[in-house]
Every structure is written in structure tokens, then in C-alpha cells.
Design brief:
Layout lengths: L1 H51 L5 H28 L6 H62 L1 H20 L11 H46 L4 H25 L2 H13 L11 H33 L14 H7 L5 H32 L10 H18 L6 H12 L12
Helix pairs in contact: 1-2, 1-3, 1-10, 2-3, 2-10, 3-5, 3-6, 3-9, 3-10, 4-5, 4-8, 5-6, 5-8, 7-8
Keywords: Membrane, Transmembrane, Transmembrane helix
């Protein structure tokens, strides 16, 4: 059993050593990679900030450059801290604290950088999307206004039908088929009075038809130019200016179409049709004849009231139609457009956020790797985890330390002097002669 545990410990040590070697090699490129990501994010942030600034002078350039540099430095420092500290902590409380810090920092990076990166990546397309949506809104308003105006023009047939009915009645009165008195007496004049009023109203309605058609045609022409500006190649800002001018013209056309609707006019005329009747003097020769005329005029007024109510209800039905929505084109910046139409540019948002938050994946990888390294070395003595190169270095260091603490070797003269003092002998002079 002991042999199996020893073999398992050796396997864990070997795995931990391999992972440590890989981490040391990756440390050499991690800083450079993180720097590249931070610089790339700073460049796109600069482009996004530039789209928000109206001025193009040196002050705006310095402001945009300063902001982008601050973003790059912040991203680099933030992820450098986490790559060093989060994999190194051991307690759960420390890990949770740093994870919360990473979450807060990631949200801050998205707030100060990612949305500007998205504006740089998809700002022009988002503004074009805004233009296209505005065109659709204007088209709906134009078609609605035209539908109401055309429906009002359809009241001309109702007016013509009522007019024709009064003209037919007047012809019958001229033949003596209504009051029994042939000719153009009081009843005939009442009928002709109302038919003339309706003929005048009918002429007014007919005169509006060419104006409605011309306004709708002009509105469609403006819409066509607006669609062209939406998809036209080139910078979007000058196109937005032209688009705004065309939108103002189209808004005027829509207002004109709303004013060309004759439904309110027909409604008021229908109310006046029965209320304003000028009764002529009865011209019957006898009292009975005048009584017949009075009875016929009363019947005519009753019919007139019915026709007027029918015409008024038809006009009010047109007036009650939902009015076209008030559409106003509001110029929008690239950054605001990206936020407003974020759902249409999910890939751009994903790329903008990924370039800022990709180091979070590296932090998690380092956390797992460091945990694996610690797991492989847990329960093993330090001396058992030394590799051959580490052991050789430790031995060399030990020898140097022993050499530093050993007593220095004595000089020969000093050794001889110490011997004479110890033995009491004197030195013998060398005469150059031998015995």
C-alpha cells in the first residue's frame, strides 16, 4: 500500500513540475498578449469616442486619445492584477472576494470601453438601421394620411347620390307628381336649393382629388430619395444631414395630406343641409293648394334630414379613422444607435465585449492550473519535490555557503613564527657552509 501511495505521489509531483514549466513559459508571452488586447481595445475606444465628439480639432483629438490610453492602461493593469493574485490565493473567502472584484471590474470595462468598441465596429451600420426604420415609419404615416384623404374623397359619391335624389324629386315636382301642382313652385325651389348646395360641395371634393394625388406622389418621391440615402455607400454623417432635410419635406407632405381630407367639410355641410333651409313663400292659388305645398315641403324636409344624417355619419366615420402617427426624424450618434439597436448587432457587441473580457478566460485557466499544481504537491515533503537541476543548484549554493563560513588558511611565515614561539627555538643563520 505504501508503494502505491509513493508511486501516486511521484506521479503528482511529475505532473505538477510539468505544469509549472508550462506556466513559466506562458508567463513570458502573457504580458505581451495582454498588452496587445489592451491596445486594440484602446484603438477601437478612440474611434468610438471620436464619433461622439462634434469638434475635430486638436482638443477633441487629445481628449479621445487620453480616454483611450486610460482605458488601455486600466484594462492591462486590472487583468495583470487578477492573473497574479486570483490563481495564487488558497482560501475560499479570498477567491470569492477576488471573483466579485473581477465581476465588478468587468462591468466597469463594458461601461467605459465595450460599448464604444461596438460603436466603432458597427456604428455606421447602426445609424443606417436607424435611417431605414425612420423611412418605414414615414412610409406608414404617408400611406395612412393618403388612405384617410382617399376615403374622404370617396364621400363625393355619397354627396352625388344625395344630390341626384333631390334633383329627381325636383323633376317630379316639375311634372306635378309630388304636390300635385305642376311647375316650378315653392317645393321645386326648395329641392333645387339643396341640390345646388350639394353640387357645390361635390365640386369642392372633386377639386381636392388632384391635390391629394400630387401630394402622395411627391411623398413617394421623397421616400425614394430617403431609401437611396440609407443604402448609399460612403460616410453616413453627410447622408444623415441630407436625410434630415428630406424628412422635413416629407413631414410637410404628410401634414398637407391630412389637411386635404374633406371629411370635416362634408360633416359640417351635412349638418347645415337640414338646419339651413330657406323656405319660399307658398304660391298656391287656393288654400288647398297651399296646404298641399306645405305638406309636401314638410315631407321634403324630413327626407332632407334623413339624407343629411346618412351623409354626416359617413363623414364622421372617415373623421374617426386613426390619424397617422407623428413621425419625427431625430439624428442619432453611432454609439447611441448601437445601443438602441443592440439586438440587430449581437455579433459586433460580442466581439467588442470579448476583446475586453477575454483575459478573464486566461485568469480562470491559471486558477485551474495552479490548483492542479498545488494538488500534485500536497502531502509531499519539499525535498521530494526537487528536480535534478534544482538539487544541483542547491548543492552548489551549499558549498558556497560553507566556503564563506570556513576559517581562512594561515600564511607560511605566520605558521613558522607561531611554531618558534611555542617551542622557544631561535632561528639558525644560514652561513652558506656545510659541515
Amino acid at each position: 500500500m505504501g508503494e502505491e501511495i509513493s508511486r501516486g505521489d511521484a506521479e503528482g509531483i511529475r505532473c505538477a513540475s510539468e505544469l509549472s514549466a508550462h506556466v513559466r513559459w506562458l508567463d513570458g508571452i502573457t504580458g505581451a498578449a495582454l498588452g496587445v488586447l489592451a491596445v486594440a481595445s484602446g484603438i477601437y475606444t478612440y474611434l468610438g469616442v471620436s464619433s461622439l465628439l462634434d469638434d475635430t480639432g486638436m482638443l477633441s483629438f487629445a481628449a479621445a486619445a487620453s480616454y483611450s490610453i486610460a482605458v488601455s492602461v486600466g484594462i492591462f493593469v486590472f487583468w495583470s492584477y487578477l492573473m497574479r493574485l486570483l490563481p495564487a490565493v488558497r482560501t475560499m473567502a479570498s477567491r470569492i472576494g477576488l471573483m466579485v472584484s473581477m465581476l465588478i471590474g468587468s462591468l466597469a470595462i463594458i461601461a467605459m470601453s465595450s460599448w464604444l468598441n461596438a460603436a466603432a465596429l458597427a456604428g455606421s451600420a447602426a445609424v443606417e438601421q436607424h435611417l431605414a426604420k425612420t423611412v418605414q415609419e414615414y412610409q406608414a404615416s404617408l400611406e395612412r394620411a393618403n388612405a384617410i384623404a382617399v376615403s374622404a374623397q370617396g364621400l363625393e359619391r355619397d354627396v352625388a347620390r344625395v344630390r341626384q335624389s333631390f334633383e329627381d324629386l325636383s323633376e317630379q315636382e316639375a311634372d306635378g307628381n309630388l304636390s300635385g301642382l305642376a311647375g316650378r313652385g315653392a317645393v321645386f325651389r326648395v329641392l333645387r336649393q339643396k341640390s345646388d348646395e350639394l353640387r357645390s360641395l361635390e365640386a369642392q371634393i372633386a377639386s381636392q382629388a388632384p391635390l391629394v394625388q400630387a401630394a402622395f406622389a411627391e411623398g413617394n418621391a421623397i421616400l425614394s430619395r430617403m431609401r437611396t440615402l440609407t443604402v448609399e455607400p460612403g460616410p453616413v454623417e453627410p447622408r444623415s444631414v441630407q436625410f434630415s432635410e428630406e424628412a422635413v419635406r416629407l413631414a410637410g407632405i404628410i401634414t398637407q395630406l391630412r389637411q386635404l381630407s374633406v371629411a370635416p367639410l362634408v360633416s359640417r355641410a351635412a349638418q347645415d343641409l337640414a338646419a339651413s333651409v330657406v323656405l319660399p313663400e307658398l304660391d298656391g292659388r287656393t288654400g288647398a293648394a297651399r296646404g298641399d305645398q306645405q305638406s309636401t315641403i314638410a315631407s321634403v324636409l324630413a327626407v332632407l334630414g334623413q339624407r343629411a344624417d346618412t351623409l354626416r355619419m359617413a363623414a364622421e366615420a372617415v373623421v374617426a379613422m386613426p390619424a397617422p402617427s407623428d413621425t419625427t426624424y431625430t439624428p442619432i450618434s453611432a454609439a447611441d444607435a448601437v445601443i438602441l439597436y443592440a439586438g440587430n448587432f449581437a455579433p459586433s457587441w460580442a466581439g467588442a465585449i470579448a476583446i475586453d473580457l477575454l483575459p478573464a478566460v486566461l485568469v480562470l485557466i491559471l486558477m485551474v492550473t495552479q490548483a492542479a499544481i498545488r494538488s500534485g504537491r500536497d502531502g509531499v515533503r519539499v525535498e521530494e519535490t526537487l528536480t535534478l537541476s534544482e538539487l544541483r543548484g542547491a548543492m552548489l549554493a551549499l558549498r558556497e555557503m560553507e566556503g564563506m563560513h570556513a576559517p581562512p588558511a594561515a600564511a607560511p611565515e605566520k605558521v613558522e613564527l607561531d611554531l618558534r614561539k611555542a617551542t622557544g627555538l631561535k632561528p639558525v643563520e644560514d652561513t652558506g657552509k656545510t659541515g
